[in-house]
Every structure is written in structure tokens, then in C-alpha cells.
Amino acid sequence: MSEMIFTTLTKAARTLSLMAAVTLGAQAATAQNMFAPVARIDSMVVTEFEVQQRQRFLQLLNAPGSDRDSVVEGLIDDRLRNRAASDVGLELTEEGTQTGLSEFAARANLTTEEFTKALEQSGVARETFRDYVTTSLIWRELIRARYLNSVNITEAEIDRAMGASSGGSGLRVLVSEIIIPAPPPQAARVNALAGQISQSTSEAEFSSYARKYSATASRGAGGRLPWTPLSKLPPSLQPLLLALAPGEVTSPLPIPNAVALFQLRAIEETGTPTQSYSAIEYAAYFIPGGRSEAALAEAARVQGKVDVCDDLYGIAKGQPAEVLVRETKKPGELPKDYAIELSKLDPGETSTALTRANGQNLVLLMLCKRTAEANAETDRDAVLSALRQQKLQGYSNQLLQQLRAEARIIYK
């Protein structure tokens, strides 16, 4: 009996040893394949591991460009960016790196360590996050160091951007918008999503996000707004748009219970004098229920009964005084979210894109009137900064194209 047991154990041990050897061999082969080159850029390589890590990272953030081809191209660009910075001896300080990581994580209302742990739990190495952020930071520093002194903005350029050139011509813009509701329980998720939407590189991509996430009336059109005079937009938004090249997106703009993003599609001189405003009069009627079906249905009912702001008094009759607010403010004094929505309205038109009271009240916002102002002052320094950033972005695109043209790129 003992011999039979010994023989059985021996066979089992041999079987387990063989299975272990096969398993270890398969794991070794898999590991080897994971680090196989996917692309060669001169003497540099992009590995399968990096591609899968970057894809996973972007997918977790609901970021555009997470398909395999886009990820490979992005990693190739990163190799070229880092080499260009290394060639001139440019390095990030650890303090600068930590600040960049912290700012990125803060978009999700998390600390760097919290954000990193969340990524690791989903299979993304902390090095993947660090590399993604530091490459962007070092490239920005390189562009500023290389081109900032070459960026000369003339007074005439500032005048044109302000719509105050000698001919009196103004500017108008084609913009797409996304406003995503972000009540406190959803703020972290929405901020992370908005951070990734801001990386959109095409109108189609941005419009797809708008149809899926935006709360504005323009969502059915992919967030696309018609031509709008620049002076009609909120003063805080104007320099941000001027800093963009067509196709680029603003950073996420926090507004009460929501996050806003804007994509510049086109900009042109109108040949007509710019119009500035000294005051904006509006009315806000608050409907309980937030963005519920019942509240939106009530808003639609009210919209069908009002043509001017005075009509809202009849709607609010018998209700607490605080359900209706009517104010006149300077453009720069308007709440940021109100300013954005009012810029899209003509007198008598309404918007239901916003909420108040932590998302519990839907705002039916109506523009009463705009008061024109002659020769309104615009912050020339803000315009100068925006134009400078726009030119630096152009240099950035040109340099990357040059680096790609000079490199020998081989796809595996």
C-alpha cells in the first residue's frame, strides 16, 4: 500500500512540475511579447506594454483617441517630444513634476496618491500616469524656451483681436459647447470626464461628446452654435477663445453644479463695428426638481406662456418671492454660467441648461435686454496673453511635424 501511495504522489509531483513548467513558459512568452516593439523611432521603441497601458489609461478616463492606432501615434510623438527636450538638456524638477501630477489628479477632485491608487486598482501602472503628464509638461517648457522670444504681438494684432482696429471691424466666432451637469455626488466623475473632453482634436469627436453628455439645447446639433460676435460672449471667455486655434478646446470651466467646455471652430473679422454692452438684464425662474422630467416639462410649459421677462411675474404669482430673480448687471459681474447662457440668447429667449441649490432647482433663464456701451474697455493684457499662447501652439505643431519628418519611423 505504501508503495502505491508513493508511486501516486511521485506521478502527481511530476505532473505538477510539468504543468508549472508549461505555465511559467507561457507567462515568460507572454511577458516577452508584451515588451516586443510595436514601433521603432530611430533607436527608440514603443512597446506593446506601453500601448496597452496607454489605452487602458485613456479608456478609464473616457478620453478620446483611445483606439490602438491613435495610441501608437501618440506614443511615437511622445518619444520625439522627450528626445527634443533631452537634446537641449531640458529636465523637469521633481517639484514641477509633482505639481503637474497634482493638478491633473485634482480634475477628479483627488490627490495624486488617491488618483494613482485608483489607476493601479484598474491595472494602470503609476509610471504610465507619470509619463503621460511629464511629457506634456516638458514639451510645454521646451516650446516656451525655444519660441517665446520669437513671439511678437503688434498693437495692430491686439486691436484686431479686440475688434477695435482703425476700420472699427469686430470679430465673430463659430463655437461648439458642452455643459455637463455636475451635482456634488457626481462632481469627481464629471470633472475627470471634462478633463479628457478638453483633449478632443476634431469637431466630430467634440460633437459626439456633446450629444452624449451636454445639457444644453444645442446638444442635438452636437453642441454647434451659430456665428456669434465675440463681444457678445462673457468677458472671461473671450480671451480663452482667442487663445485657441480652430479645432482646439478650452480647459474645463467650473460653473455652479456643472462644467463647461468650448471648442473654437472658426473665427473671422466681420468688417462691421464691434458692439459692447454696459449692462445685461435677465430674469431667473427657479423650478423644483432639478433636471427631472417633471421639472423640464414644467419649464417647457412656462416657455410656451412667456414672451418677455414681465410675463414671468404672472407665472410666479402666489409663490415665494425667491422663485423669481430679475437683475441688471455689468457683463463682468454676471455669474459665469449665466453669462455663458445669456450670450446665446436674444431678448425674450430662454435657456434651461442650468441648475441651482446643488442641482435641486432647474433655472429657467430669460434675457430681458442688453444695454449697449460705446468704446467699452477690454483688457489688452488678457488679449496679448491669449494671442501669444495661440502663436506658441502653432510653433508647437510645426516643430512636432518637423521632428516626425526627420525621424525614421518603422511600424512592426
UniProtKB/TrEMBL annotation:
The organism of origin for this protein: Sulfitobacter mediterraneus
Descriptive protein name: Parvulin-like PPIase
Keyword set, alphabetical order: Isomerase, Rotamase, Signal
Alphabetized GO MF terms: peptidyl-prolyl cis-trans isomerase activity
Leader peptide range in chain numbering: 1-28
Entry-linked InterPro entries: OMP_Chaperone_SurA (IPR050280), PPIase_dom_sf (IPR046357), PPIase_PpiC (IPR000297), Trigger_fact/SurA_dom_sf (IPR027304)
Stretches assigned to the PpiC domain: 170-266
Keyword ATP-binding: no
